[in-house]
Amino acid sequence: MTRPRAASEGFVDTLPKNVRAQLNPVFSPLIDIIPMQNDAKIGPQDSAVFSSRNGVEAAPKGHGRAAYCIGPATTETALAKGWNAQQVGSDADGLVNALRSMQPKGRLVHLSGRHTRGDISGKLSQAGLNIINVPIYDQILRPLSDEAQQAILNARRAIVPVFSPRTAAQFVKTAPTLHSVQVIALSAAVGHEIPVKAVYSLNVAAHPDAQAMGAALAEALTRS
Q1: What is the spatial distance between Cα 165 and Cα 114, in angstroms, rounded to a whole number?
Q2: What is the spatial distance between Cα 61 and Cα 114, in angstroms, rounded to a whole number?
Q3: What's the pLDDT score for residue 34?
Q4: Do 127 and 149 touch, CB atoms closer than 8 A?
Q5: Distance separating alpha carbons of residues 187 and 53, to the nearest angstrom
Q6: What distance in Å separates the CA atoms of residue 25 and residue 151, rounded to the nearest whole number?
Q7: 3-class SS letters over the chain
Q8: What is the per-residue pLDDT across 144-171, written as a single tens digit (0 to 9) for each?
């Protein structure tokens, strides 16, 4: 499991019991989420754009302000933190297309990580929306742990879910071998970072969400 520890444990907990019973999870976060000392001032009439739960968790409380979110998990987290949140896409392109159509009034503030993909702010600005990007957390890369490396070397098959392009690239860079690895990618953009011929298999989730990732993982177990 390559996500930050809490997110990885949360994902495993959502899996059906019969799937969890077949797994021996090894937790090796490849990215640390570090809040940045950035004064993210959002006015009472501003609306937030959240492309990940990490952005919500690093952001101030919503106090009823509007928020446009990618995916159900990010939306639920924003609602719990006091934002008047709505899901407007399952990925960056979906969010951009939805907001282009909606043309919300007032200023939008994309509260993001230091490293972003999809150029959300740039595309929406070109579409005539008033939007700024404020990075409020950093994503520090980490190598695979010794335990994870040994697990990959010793296992006949190792199933590795990857949830972001940077995580996927870091896994490829630091894994001791790839030939026994069954990679499950959140999206085509994530899968693009995996050298298909070097791994045992690569499967892209049907939808970029935890439920589809769980279904892909369960399917991978039948082939391991």
Answers
A1: 14
A2: 20
A3: 93
A4: no
A5: 17
A6: 10
A7: CCCCHHHHHHHHHHCCHHHHCCCCCCCCCCEEEEECCCCCCCCCCCEEEECCHHHHHHCCCCCCCEEEECCHHHHHHHHHCCCEEEECCCCHHHHHHHHHHHCCCCCEEEEEECCCCCCHHHHHHHCCCCEEEEEEEEEEECCCCHHHHHHHHHCCCEEEEECCHHHHHHHHHHCCCCCCEEEEECCHHHHCCCCHHHCCEEEECCCCCHHHHHHHHHHHHHHC
A8: 999 999 999 998 899 999 999 999 999 9
Entry pTM: 0.85
Q: What angle do CA 194, 148, 24 make, to 5 degrees?
A: 100
Distance from C-alpha of 165 to C-alpha of 141, rounded to nearest angstrom: 12
CA 111 – CA 55 distance, rounded (Å): 6
C-alpha span between 6 and 202 (Å, rounded):
25
- What pLDDT digit, counting tens, does each position of 24-59 carry? 999 999 999 999 876 667 888 999 999 999 999 999
Going from the C-alpha of 66 to that of each of 79, 111, 159, the distances in angstroms are: 10, 13, 38
Compute and round to an integer the Cα radius of gyration of the chain: 18
Residue 102: what residue type? M
Q: Are 187 and 70 in contact (CB under 8 A)?
A: no
The two structure tokens encoding residue 78? 């924003």
User: CA-CA-CA-CA torsion for 112, 114, 116, 121, nearest 10 degrees?
Assistant: 60
